[in-house]
Structure formats: C-alpha cells, structure tokens
Amino acid sequence: MKKLAFVLVLSFFLFGCKAKTDELETFINDFNESVENTEANEIDTDEVAKHENNQWQSLYNEKGAYFIEVKSNSNGELTNFKIVIDKNQIYYHLLGSGIDASKSVISSLDLDKDKFLIKSAEAIDNLNAEIIKYSENGFEIGVQDITYGEKYRDGLIIMIDKVN
Q1: Are the beta carbons of 99 and 89 closer than 8 angstroms?
Q2: How far apart are CA 146 and CA 155, in angstroms?
C-alpha cells in the first residue's frame, strides 16, 4: 500500500510539473503562430532557458527593438508578462516589430488587440508618462510611454499581470 501511495504521489508530481511547463510552451506556440506575416520575430524555443518559478525569464531580446519577459508563480503558472519596446522603434505611430510583438502577446492571452491599441495610443498621447491601466479577462494591463517633454521618448513598457 505504501508503494502504491508513493507511485501515485510521484506520478502526480511529475505530471503536475509537466503541465506547468506546457503552459509556457503553449504560450510560445501561440505567440509564434500570431507573429506570422508581421514584423515581429518568433521566439526560438531552443534559446529559452529552463523556467525558474518566481523569476523573470527572457523569451526574446533584440537590441534596439524590443524584449519580452515572463514570470511565473510558485506553482509554475505564468502570471506576469513584460514587453519593452526600444526608443528606436516607431511605436509612437503604433507600428514596428515591437508593437507587432505586443499585439501577438495580447492575442496569445486571448485579449482584445483593438482595446490594447486604443490604450497604447492613450499612453503615447499622454506626455506625463502616466501608466494607462485597464482590466480584461482576468488580467490587468498597464501601458506606459516613457517621455521627457514633448520630443524625447525613451520607449514603451507593457505590463500584463494575471489577477487572482
């Protein structure tokens, strides 16, 4: 009986861990399908390191363009997503590879891309660098254009946090 209980606990642990890893793989697969025919690049799964719980993990980083990071909770569930678009991108016209990558993240999480673009435009038009926040389908999304006056932009930050 003890052996059976041990096997059941071990099986639950192994399959439970696999399920959490699959969440990241599913997200990456959805993202990669979404970036087809856009300026954004696919995430190379071979370059994604082993995911550590409660740590930010880089999924994609192109200097001068954008980067994407994810974070999971102690159970391995993806809970936070961060996209930072470099100041050298033409994000302020809602164009370019960083905006395309952001829309792909939004789409991969089954969120409304049009609503995201409206809120992004609102953040870009706001010269006080305020974070524009909204909620949708169990996520809180924040968009911030880092500006210094009317002419100097330092990039766009998108934070997506799963709300319990």
Answers
A1: yes
A2: 6
At residue 20, what are phi and psi to the nearest 5 degrees? -70, -40
Q: Where are the domains of the chain?
A: 2-162
pLDDT, tens digit (0-9, with 9 covering 90-100), for 14-33 = 444 444 458 899 999 999 99
Token pair belonging to 123: 């953040």
- What is the torsional sign of CA 109, 115, 119, 125? positive
Neighbours of 59 (CB within 10 A): 24
Handedness of CA 31, 37, 40, 42 (dihedral sign): positive
Torsion of CA 85, 89, 91, 93, to 10 degrees: 180
DSSP state of 84: E
pLDDT digits (tens, 9 = 90+) for 124-146: 998 788 899 999 999 999 999 98
Q: Give me the mean pLDDT over the 49-59 stretch.
A: 81
Distance CA 153, CA 150 (A): 8
* Residues 108, 114, 116, 121, Cα dihedral to 10°: 150
Over residues 97-126, the pLDDT tens digits come to 999 999 999 999 999 999 999 999 999 998
